[in-house]
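USER:
Working in pairs, take the chain set out below, taking as long as you need, and write a paragraph about the fold.
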Amino acid sequence: MHLVQGQQELVQRLIPPKKTMQDITVDVPKDNKISKRTLDDKLEKLKERGLMDAGLVLVQEGMLQGYLAEGELDFGLNNLGIYWDSTARIRLLGEAEEGDLDLSMFVDRTPLTICAQAPMEYLVEMFGKLGLRYICVVEEGSGRAVGVVIKKRLVVWLESLRG
């Protein structure tokens, strides 16, 4: 913790680049369903990164709606979704209807969040004391989702401080 206290860094420093955020963000339409093809593509991009603790940030009109971890997405698509073709629409939010491929049970609808302008000390404390794998980052004032920090990204940053 003493390494972080002298840094005067803000959480926004660890928000992934814009391209990464586009790859891991799903803008869920009002019907709360996404095509299986889109989710398959997003899962493939997550796997390419090789980060087992990553996932998808779910938003509607920019507002954070939940987080779907890679492991749960993989299980849902490759175990439950094997009987649906790539054009099927998968429910991510809301109540399931008869015949839906419903992955909403795997979505963390109340992910912990932190403001992008918060001191890095707060982020380190939250990960350390709560044992988090990820935390979603929101814009100050509006609460719009702007990023996500996974534990691995934080650890790499902390190790860089040690030199």
Summary: The mean pLDDT is 90. The longest helix spans residues 36-49. The first strand starts at residue 25 and ends at 27.
